[in-house]
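Response to reviewer comment R2.3. The reviewers asked that we include at least one raw input/output pair. We reproduce the pair for Ni/Fe hydrogenase subunit alpha here without editing.
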Amino acid sequence: MSRTVTIEPVTRIEGHARITLQLGDQGEVQDARFHLTQFRGFEKFCEGRPYREMPALTARTCGICPVSHVLASNKACDYLLSVTIPPTAEKLRRIINLAQITQSHALSFFHLSSPDLLLGWDSDPVSRNIFGVMRQDPALAKDGIRLRQIGQTIIETLGGKKIHPTWVVPGGVSEALTPEKREAMLKMLPEGLEIAKRTYAFFKTLVPKFKDEASNFGTQDTMFLSLVSPEGNLEHYDGFLRIKDARGHIVEDMVPTWEYERLVGEAVEDFSYMKFPYYKPIGYPQGIYRVGPLARLNNADSCGTPYADVALAEFHMLQESGPIASSFHYHYARLVEIIYAIEMMERLLKDPDILDHRVRARARSNRDEGIGVSEAPRGTLMHHYKIDDDGLITWVNLIIATGHNNLAMNAAIRQVADAYVDGNNLQEGMLNRVEAVIRCYDPCLSCASHAFGEMPLVIELKDAKGQVVDRLSRG
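Raw output as returned:
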């Protein structure tokens, strides 16, 4: 008899979601879906607001990666102003973005995913969490907490607070860096780099133990989308769009970010509040691609910092040829990017111009449409605004990093379910592997909850025992 297995909530991710596995008569997996169950609708909330409010408004989309939204939003506002921000302001924005990547990647690796890697997929779920890691390996847990603290402290030092800083403004930043703050941040970075290198070395010893997972965790053929610098190197703040296919061929390169609509189409399905972006020239759903640290390292020719470049070379040795296909290696890529972020922050802070007081360009709106694109920890983040003659928002579209990965995440849970789930003998560890492949992508679902076109809406009426007695659907 066919039946549906529901995993709800999906644990150790940011936001609310469930996974459903449709099993056939013989217990085989027939379908697997990842459902985003929360709806927020920020694009609509923002209509009618002055465009200068957008950085503060859209940052409230998320408490985990508000800096990413602040940056993409302010870049869209820079475009509306039609200004080039001062070079020092750009360097300061890069630093706060790299601090955000450091703290977010540390949260993902140490707090959310290391319990599976250290304690095992089949370990007791009661202890399979950061507290279990503290008991098993106190030094590793302490490193994770400290590394995240360093990232958060740099955000607070620059932005005035750890969450929802308002220091980045249209045209630049609101306040120049002082020598005292620069020295305070530089003092923390050597310790951060040692932790990052130590964790990376530790994780390399773990990778051979997870060959099976690396073979089954989201290895489907996809393209990879990310920003790259004009030289083709790793880029998180600006640059151009690059897309590689599953064989490593560059299919789009040095595409200006304001041309993103030529590349990215958006579809909706009735089982999720998350959009399904796709590569438009191929169509939906064949135009599947991935973003985030795995895509960025697959697309970059080089990192441009000493230790990260060594790690990047080792990353490419995980596979004989072509882009690294397994989504399990998002963890590896995340650790390489932490090393890069700390090295690059130190380089930028030691730049002779970093204390320059010219940090903001001022202007009125000079365009009626603005596009801002940057790399959030989880991938490419796109903000697109239209305004009227009074500077009020008339239209907003946000394409969130997690949304870009939606097609890939759905394909990945199907692959993992096919590999590990036996419907006739369900074990908790099997279902944990299905959740774990989602954790590889480190989804931020609070950010990714959006509707496009007709809103898919399902209302269920349940009785006191939780049984569904009526159901309405739309979309």
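The radius of gyration is 22 Å. The CA atoms of residues 147 and 192 lie 6 Å apart. Further pairs are available on request from the corresponding author.
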